[in-house]
User: Which sequence fits this backbone?
């Protein structure tokens, strides 16, 4: 009797699997991270959380890409060394491995290149690569980790940023309600959220926000149909190319976990997801949406909140008397 | 045969337990936390990590009591709102439940009273209790947590600080090598560390640094035999009592995890544990120690590093459009 029931259950499961193949949609599920180099990921996690990579000894990667807060800082723009106001909204680190390039203007090709940026940016961590490496090289446990993982006697910034990038690649957020729906669980989305997804496609949002990350795979002009008003001076891709056609062209941000990554847009000017949807529809698509339509799209967007990375807080190896000391309040030479 | 071996093993273990009762020493082992209210601890953990308890939305309890770094910030004095330089070294939160009072001058009776301090301190988190509670009250998941744990419809600062304190009570660090030695494992300490402990007692350090926390249970004058030179203006207990006899009287800090909680003393002026031991012996005890003696005492002190609290990083419930927005760069009214 028990065996028969088990057989029936097995058949039932198989049938369900056959009956609900993955849906053919312009958005695909996020897949869980497959960790092949756990020691490297663990080292990268320590580095991601280590404020000694900053001049002050106070700011870590996690300060502005806070993994308790959707991988962002939930501020319009970030607080940098000496409380400087950053020039642009801090993008989420979650699922950032799916981006075609890093930073809003795509100036870094990949996560490793990105990771070196904030360390040496005077507005952010305010340090230099040499000084950061010098700190790590003074800490025996770090030296040992780099030696055993990278087979190097002398740490360089390349290993540091590689380890951080390997950790960041694990920061994916699978199994969102929308992904469950994509995989065949019809009950994973409410009727309103499903209506929101249909609108998202019909209105045209999906033209830019598609793929597994629901964005992150193209550059587009902010304010395509109608200009975007902002006091933020960021030029977008034009800042790199000098080409006026690239003015206000930014990487399309991922909409994964957008519920957690307020405030929105490169200037962080909008806090309410409803408002952000309204602005996008008007400025990018020339569409004035009804209030109910906006609510439905927002419900769909909230179904993109996936399982957040869960891990024990890392323990950082202690400094030694030889470790260069942080300088949070050093006089700035002009 | 198997059963016989098992019996022999059982007898062996019992014999060991009888042969090595806990040592009768002026320092006692740290006991692991017994969590009786896990939901409250979990809420307190969220609050401890939530920067929305600060005006800027950037500074959390964990910013200056970083649980990846021995529950401290490893800075001489802390960085507060608007990058203000704090007046005193941030004491470790680890084992702080064992302190007879909180803060260097003992001005808070317990952890709950302490927890309210930094939130409302203009030099630290720069917020007010009312504003912090207002932020939490705008977040449905927090409201629900407080309701189910405290049976309150309206959150007040009392529940907020109670939950933080309950979490902090779990931040004990049992099973340090020294504790293993106390409990009978003679191999847990090296000969030099054991010699260091004997010196620690003979020289007189143990007069103030005793009990399970190896300190934290009395107030003593900094610079008892010889004055302590510092530019730090902190007055110690005299700042509260106005009594000149209390000048430079501070709570004796715990030496648990002292390897991780550099730099040392209320002004954070000493980074090298050897130097700190030397200064203490001269100023408090009138003893000039030999270099080898200092090294041995330092080795003993490093045997006080216990198991650090290990838990998954908390996920913070997202703000809503109704949540008052952080003000990291608001103009300061003079």
Assistant:
């Amino acid at each position: 009797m028990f065996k028969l029931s088990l057989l029936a259950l097995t058949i039932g499961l198989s049938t369900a699997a056959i009956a609900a193949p993955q849906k053919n949609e312009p958005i695909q599920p996020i897949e869980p991270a497959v960790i092949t180099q756990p020691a490297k990921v663990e080292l990268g996690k320590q580095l991601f959380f280590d404020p000694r990579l900053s001049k002050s000894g106070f700011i870590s990667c996690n300060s502005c890409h806070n993994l308790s807060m959707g991988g962002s800082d939930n501020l319009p723009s970030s607080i940098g060394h000496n409380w400087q106001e950053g020039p642009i909204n801090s993008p989420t680190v979650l699922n950032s491995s799916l981006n075609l390039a890093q930073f809003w203007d795509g100036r870094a090709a990949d996560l490793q290149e990105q990771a070196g940026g904030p360390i040496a940016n005077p507005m952010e961590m305010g340090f230099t690569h040499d000084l950061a490496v010098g700190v790590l090289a003074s800490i025996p446990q770090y030296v040992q980790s780099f030696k055993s993982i990278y087979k190097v006697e002398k740490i360089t910034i390349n290993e540091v940023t590689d380890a951080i990038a390997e950790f960041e690649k694990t920061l994916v957020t699978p199994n969102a309600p929308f992904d469950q729906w994509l995989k065949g669980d019809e009950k994973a989305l409410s009727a309103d959220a499903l209506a929101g997804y249909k609108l998202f496609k019909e209105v045209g949002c999906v033209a830019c926000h598609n793929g597994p990350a629901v964005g992150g795979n193209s550059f587009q002009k902010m304010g395509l149909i109608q200009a975007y008003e902002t006091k933020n001076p960021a030029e977008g891709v034009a800042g790199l190319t000098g080409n006026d056609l690239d003015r206000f062209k930014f990487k399309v941000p991922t909409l994964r976990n957008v519920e957690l990554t307020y405030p929105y847009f490169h200037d962080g000017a909008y806090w309410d997801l409803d408002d952000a949807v309204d602005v996008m529809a008007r400025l990018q698509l020339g569409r004035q949406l009804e209030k109910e339509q906006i609510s439905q799209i927002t419900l769909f967007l909230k179904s993109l909140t996936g399982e957040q990375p869960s891990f024990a807080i890392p323990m950082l190896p202690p400094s030694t008397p030889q470790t260069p000391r942080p300088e949070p309040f050093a006089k700035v030479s002009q």
Notes: Residues 1-17 of chain A have pLDDT under 50 and may be disordered. Chain A has two domains: 38-169, 177-302.
